[in-house]
């Protein structure tokens, strides 16, 4: 059969082909009508990657954050048994489990069976190049499909908040106990430091500075006293009577002048008077009296110088004792101060630990009271109007293609079973002769007879 005869045959048998096509489409429509319809409820969640936890100290430290990995993790959480159990409890699906999921198999846990059946119809799809998750739930009931999809979104939001808040509450209790411990240690360290300062006289930070100043003053006074003592000792030596301090005394100088004058006077008298002369004897008696008085005054001046030397030595000894005592006190205070520094470091360490624990406790308390997370339900699942299964458009399109193929095949089969020559090419192929003229009988009166003969 040549191609022109086949095309002519298809054109001639168009009614048969149309009938076959309509029959196939009718069967597809009937199949679609009797098929169980599945509706899909779609709820969308949005993850805000700009939202940060106000209690997280590491929120702004520039640490790497993989949003795609986080969204995939959250998708696994949505499909977890825990979220499914929350949906069953909040929506009370156990009261209509047989209607929704069919008959429960024998020897199975009812909750586990309902969870498996519920998750079987659930799919979670991350959005392309976006921070969204689509929660899809299929059900023969469109209302139930939307209801359970929204229930999964709500249950996941609650689970996400619980995953953040519950550990914070647990840590809050631990930090409260830890806070009491570090506060007790801080109080003990402060008490020990206060008792030590009171016992050793550390009233303020200027104690050591005052003691150092006092030691400097005492050292200066001791140096001056030692110089004075050495000077007095040198002036009050074995020849104290001939020392400058004694010889330069006004009374002694006057007495020495008087002795010199009286001696000169006796020398003059000796030239004119004899040693037994009353005037000469009186002059010598007066000279002896002056010398006796000079000796007495010299002894008194020497005694006064000895007293001054004794006082200077005593003053030097006293200052030496004070300096030694002050040095000993400062050595003791230096040792005590080192011990006090250790106690102060203990107090500072205890205070630092207390501040750190109280800061973390405050952060945990805030995190335990956070009202929301970084996930929000962007779209609530509406009640679907068009079923997602079966796909009517796809079935009709496939039915049309299949019906068209069947119609063409049927027409070709009928033409092959009873072949006819319908074109000049067909005549030439069948007889080998060339057609000279063609007569059109379609509008003639013999056309019905030709159709009956055919």
Describe the SSE topology.
Elements: H1 3-12, H2 14-34, E1 39-47, H3 67-78, H4 81-91, H5 97-101, H6 110-120, E2 122-126, E3 132-139, H7 142-200, H8 207-235, H9 244-247, H10 250-272, H11 278-368, E4 375-379, H12 392-417, H13 424-431, H14 447-453
Antiparallel strand pairs: 1-3, 1-4, 2-3
Subcellular location: Cell membrane
Protein name: GNVR domain-containing protein
Keywords: Cell membrane, Coiled coil, Membrane, Transmembrane, Transmembrane helix
In short:
By secondary structure, the protein is mainly alpha-helical. The chain has 14 helices and 4 strands.
Describe what this molecule looks like in 3D.
The protein is mainly α. Among the domains are: 1-35 and 390-454, no CATH class; 207-368. Helix content is 70%, strand content 6%. It has 14 helices and four strands. It has helices at 3-12, 14-34, 67-78, 81-91, 97-101, 110-120, 142-200, 207-235, 244-247, 250-272, 278-368, 392-417, 424-431, 447-453; strands at residues 39-47, 122-126, 132-139, 375-379. It has a four-stranded antiparallel beta sheet with strand order 2-3-1-4. Helix 2 (14-34) packs antiparallel against helix 12 (392-417), helix 7 (142-200) runs antiparallel to helix 11 (278-368) and helix 8 packs antiparallel against helix 11 (278-368). It starts with a helix and ends with a helix. Residues 3-89 form the Polysaccharide chain length determinant N-terminal domain. InterPro entries: Bact_polysacc_biosynth/exp, GNVR, LPS_length_determ_N. Keywords: Cell membrane, Coiled coil, Membrane, Transmembrane, Transmembrane helix. The chain crosses the membrane at residues 394-414. This is GNVR domain-containing protein.
């Amino acid at each position: 059969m040549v191609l022109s005869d086949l095309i002519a045959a298809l054109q001639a048998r168009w009614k048969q082909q149309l009938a076959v096509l309509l029959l196939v489409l009718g069967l597809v429509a009937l199949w679609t009508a009797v098929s169980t319809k599945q509706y899909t409820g779609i709820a969308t969640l949005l993850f805000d990657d700009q939202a940060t936890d106000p209690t997280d100290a590491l929120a702004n430290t520039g640490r790497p954050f993989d949003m795609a990995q986080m969204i995939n993790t959250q998708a696994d959480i949505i499909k977890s048994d825990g979220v499914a159990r929350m949906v069953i409890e909040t929506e009370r699906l156990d009261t209509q489990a047989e209607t929704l999921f069919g008959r429960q198999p024998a020897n199975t846990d009812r909750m586990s069976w309902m969870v498996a059946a519920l998750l079987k119809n659930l799919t979670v799809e991350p959005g392309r190049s976006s921070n969204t998750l689509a929660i899809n739930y299929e059900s023969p009931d469109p209302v139930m499909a939307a209801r359970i999809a929204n229930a999964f979104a709500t249950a996941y939001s609650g689970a996400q908040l619980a995953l953040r808040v519950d550990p914070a509450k647990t840590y809050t209790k631990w930090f409260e106990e830890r806070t009491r411990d570090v506060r007790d240690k801080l109080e003990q360290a402060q008490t020990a430091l206060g008792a030590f300062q009171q016992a050793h006289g550390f009233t303020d930070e200027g104690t050591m500075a005052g003691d150092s100043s006092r030691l400097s003053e005492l050292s200066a006074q001791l140096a001056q006293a030692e110089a004075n003592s050495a000077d007095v000792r040198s002036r009050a030596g074995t020849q104290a009577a001939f020392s400058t301090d004694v010889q330069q005394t006004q009374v002694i100088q006057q007495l020495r002048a008087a002795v010199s004058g009286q001696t000169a006077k006796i020398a003059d008298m000796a030239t004119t008077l004899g040693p037994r002369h009353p005037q000469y004897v009186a002059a010598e008696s007066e000279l002896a009296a002056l010398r006796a008085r000079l000796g007495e005054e010299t002894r008194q001046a020497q005694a006064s110088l000895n007293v001054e030397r004794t006082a200077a030595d005593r003053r030097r000894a006293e200052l030496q004792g004070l300096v030694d005592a002050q040095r000993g006190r400062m050595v003791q205070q230096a040792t005590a101060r080192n011990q006090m520094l250790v106690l102060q470091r203990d107090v500072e360490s205890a205070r630092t630990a207390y501040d750190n624990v109280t800061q973390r406790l405050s952060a945990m308390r805030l995190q335990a009271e956070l009202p929301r997370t970084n996930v929000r339900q962007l779209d609530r699942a509406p009640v679907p109007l068009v079923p997602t299964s079966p796909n009517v458009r796809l079935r009709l399109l496939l039915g049309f293609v299949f019906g068209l193929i069947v119609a063409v095949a049927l027409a070709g089969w009928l033409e092959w079973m009873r072949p006819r020559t319908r074109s000049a090419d067909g005549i030439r192929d069948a007889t080998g002769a060339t057609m000279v003229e063609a007569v059109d009988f379609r509008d003639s009166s013999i056309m019905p007879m030709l159709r009956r003969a055919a």
